[in-house]
Amino acid sequence: MEDSLSSDSIAARGGWYRDFSTRPSTPALFQTTAFDVEGLEQLERIGAGAEHGFLYTRDGNPNHEALAGDVAALEGAECGAVFSSGMGGMTAVLLGLLRAGDHVVAARVLYGRTVQMLNQLQADFGLRVTYVDANDPMEFGRAVTPQTRLAIVETVSNPLMEVADLPAIACQLGAVPLMVDSTFATPCLLRPIEHGAALVFHSGSKYLNGHGDVMLGVVVGTTALVRKVRAAGALYGVNSNPFECWLASRGLRTLPLRMQRVCETAGRVAKFLARHPGVARVFYPGLSEHASHEIARRLMPTGFGGMLAFELPGGKDAVRRLFIRLGERIPFSPTLADARTTVSYPAGTSHKFLSATERQACGIGDGLVRLSIGLEDAGQLEQELGAALQG
Ligand SMILES: Cc1ncc(COP(=O)(O)O)c(C=O)c1O
User: For the residues 225-236, what does the mean pLDDT come to?
Assistant: First the structure.
């Protein structure tokens, strides 16, 4: 018979369910800091890898493993790891794979914070970085030195939607591992590993989750590289939290359907905007006039994505007026891949960390608006965008 417990002890040890013989119909959430261990023998078996168990959530958790494993399977990768945000994942990649004196070849157009992190590590920690034009694979080959340990490229790029020729870039890099930030493409549209990438990076805060309510980073690739990245993530404490992984696992179940839908709607809206007299230029890889159209057709045969950008001839003032007219119907929100359509302003959000000259060099003008297509009706979006542009 159990010892009778005081109220304090009942309260302190409470909350446990009884054992039961059926299984939950959806994955369970392991919202726990640590896992109880039977004894020292089990601790040793887990430490030695002889038994699969979890000890401390910073180092691993079943919800981490479920999400990372599913994304790895979708990408055709050997294994994966999850982090507190996309930038948490980037921290783990750069600190896990690189040392002072190492060299990185990076595409000139990358998410602004990624460039900022590379520049910071270059200025303060002795990393060396060469930026190249992602549209010219030969530049990658020319930039490689004996110290090059990593190359980074984004596909589809933010915010001009350029699609890098991954097989040509991988070929130029030889043995240097290529990491592809595939946040915009998702494994439904492009699987970089099939085209020579060693690592695929996602801001899981975006399409993988798809509901605008988590911060997550996911890195998948070869076991040797992902192990180092995961270890750095645990060391520097950029682990994700179980609930956000659980939410993202739920979002991931509808990823193929969501991607199919946003591709269809974005294609239609891109054509609508390209015809509109109030728009100077539209950037969408599905349009035949887009610089990357041919590469996109080859690498993304099932769809060109849900992201597009367009340039207003009136610059920042015209953008200000457009955002006011769009109001809450298509809100200005500095994120993407929500279930609803949103607009953003790259020069003031994702790329505000670049100088005006750097932004101009990348082709990010003051009149550029980024549109993240959601799951609404395409006709409704055309009508709302048309009305706002008309004014
Ligand atoms: C292409 C791309 N990479 C990386 C990131 C960073 O991810 P997070 O915001 O989850 O830290 C973002 C964020 O918008 C992004 O768009």
Answer: 98
pLDDT per residue as tens digits for the range 347-376: 998 888 778 888 888 788 999 999 999 999
Look up 111 and say whether it is catalytic. Answer: yes
Residue 121 has pLDDT above 60, yes or no: yes
Architecture of domain 255-390: Alpha-Beta Complex (3.90)
What is the DSSP secondary structure assignment for residue 289, as one 8-state letter? T
Give the helix ranges, DSSP H, for 205-326.
223-236, 242-252, 255-275, 293-299, 315-326
Q: Whose CA is nearest to atom 8 of ligand 1?
A: 86
Angstrom distance (rounded) from CA 321 to CA 246: 39
For residue 391, pLDDT over 80 is answered with no
Counting ligand 1 atoms within 8 A of each CB, the residue from 183, 200, 370 with the most, and so the one to mutate, is 183
Q: CATH number of the domain at 40-252, please?
A: 3.40.640.10
Our answer to whether residue 284 is catalytic in this structure is no
State the pTM of this model: 0.96
Residue type, 179: M
For the chain, residues classed under CATH 3.40.640.10 are 40-252
CATH 3.90.1150.10-classified regions of the chain: 255-390
Please give the mean pLDDT across all residues of the chain: 96
Q: Exposed, middle or buried: residue 356 (CB in 10 Å: 0-12, 13-18, 19+)?
A: exposed
Residue 1 has pLDDT above 60, yes or no: no
Quick one: average pLDDT of 337-348? Answer: 96
Question: What's the gap in Å between 350 CA and the centre of ligand 1?
Answer: 8
Active site residue 17: no
Question: Of the residues 201, 206, 370, which should be mutated to test ligand 1's pocket, given the most ligand atoms within 8 Å of the CB?
Answer: 206
